[in-house]
Amino acid sequence: MRSLQTLALTLGLGMLLAACSGGTTTGGTPQGVANPAPLPAPIRGSLVGQAASVSVSIAGNSLTTLSPSVLAGFLESAQTGTLAVAGQPQCSVSVYRVHYNTIGGAGEATDASAAVFVPSGSGNSCGNSRPVLLYAHGTSLQKSYDMADIANNTEARLAAAVFAAQGFIVVAPNYAGYGGSSLGYHPYLDRVQEGADMIDALRAARSSFTAIGARDSGKLLVTGYSQGGYVALATQRAMQDLNNAEFTLTAAAGMSGPYAIARFGDDLFGGAPRDGATVIVPTIINAAQHASAAIYRVPGDVYEAQYAGTITDLVPGTLGSSELVSQGKLPASSLFAADSMPQAPGYTQYFGAGNLIRSDYRAAYLADMAAHPCDQNATSPLNCAPAHKLRQWLVRNDLRSYLPMAPTLLCGGHDDPTVPYFNTTASAAYFRARGGAITELDIDDTPSMSDPFRSAKAGFVAARSLLRAANGDAAVASSYHAGLVAPFCMAATRDYFQSVLAR
Hints:
Blueprint: H1 2-11, E1 20-21, E2 52-54, E3 56-58, E4 61-63, E5 65-66, H2 68-78, H3 82-86, E6 92-103, E7 109-120, E8 130-136, H4 154-162, E9 169-173, H5 191-212, E10 216-225, H6 227-242, E11 249-255, H7 261-269, H8 277-290, H9 305-308, E12 314-315, H10 321-326, H11 359-371, H12 389-397, E13 408-412, H13 422-433, E14 438-442, H14 454-471, H15 473-501
Parallel strand pairs: 8-9, 8-10, 10-11, 11-13, 13-14
Antiparallel strand pairs: 1-12, 2-6, 3-4, 5-6, 6-7, 7-9
């Protein structure tokens, strides 16, 4: 069990914060040269080049396929305790990277990349046609974030260990704005763009399957963690909205995602900000601005002067969270001014000097909450018609606005300090009220003997207890979202998918 504690301590920050960036390109036609005819927009979901094999350096050898024993050693050497959560690899895994055409938040043509993990082997879970799992990753400050880089990306290794090594073909998009994408910003939690991006990545990956030896069984699953949990459900909705035979989901799972984003925003502005809020709020606003939501005329309408000049398209970039704070580009935790009211008990650390959001902007948001309250009814939470531009954007992107048609799991932990658990409970209640086949899983719950998720729950409880005993409650809180909940929800999601596939 000691290895579980180590895993929880070290998974942490790779999936904690989220970002979006932005940029523009300029150009022109030389004097005396006629304007050329515009080129047709690239076909969405088409490959740019061919799928590229990604090698992993192990013991001085560059390997393109990792056998189960080699993969097991690699996973444990990179992150002690991974196999205690994921289980022993059953399949060999090969990693590929695809580059594809997609769209940005304004519908503009752009490109992005995705990792494809291909299982192989002679066993029944590896050697025949395999289900395809579309995986949406958590948020990152780094524009270089790449799910194909399993040597350096903790979440990518977990996806490979939990899913690919157990026989799932995994398609893991990096999203527009990351992983070599030419888009200068990331459309963070933009429901329409993120669903489209995931669909385009899957289209591109499918077109490369024959070349890379991926044998698709026709079973399609979608999941993701944190930002990716939201993106997974946005993708489910986007596939249903297409209403054609191109994508038929077998099952879906959201893990610790901000699905109820309108309530999340109201809770935050109402006095209960969450860990990472000084990154999450401007990232959402930046995505909205790029999608022509007109959140502000100039950044100074929203942000204090010391941040307004550099905050547009700030992340993802090259700076980590500590560098953003040390260079004065973002405050560590002071989202609102020390005298800004109301302040919920237990959230005073988010109110202080050097705050990010102007008090008059918060006051306007609060006034709109009072005039147009949302979440007045669990079955119609978005029947509120806000007038405030940011609240309009949040309502537009709240996922309590469709009915999942495939079996769907929502997994999270009830003490999550980053993405409140009400996102899970409120969304599950909304979906169930409309007849959805929803399974809600609080991973932070003592399991009964008959609990189908007993193994994942027991592992979480053990890891949390060990971490608390060794490092105290503060360590549990700081590791809870990304370090504790993430791997165990991923393991539970795999078990859920396998149970659905076996029906």
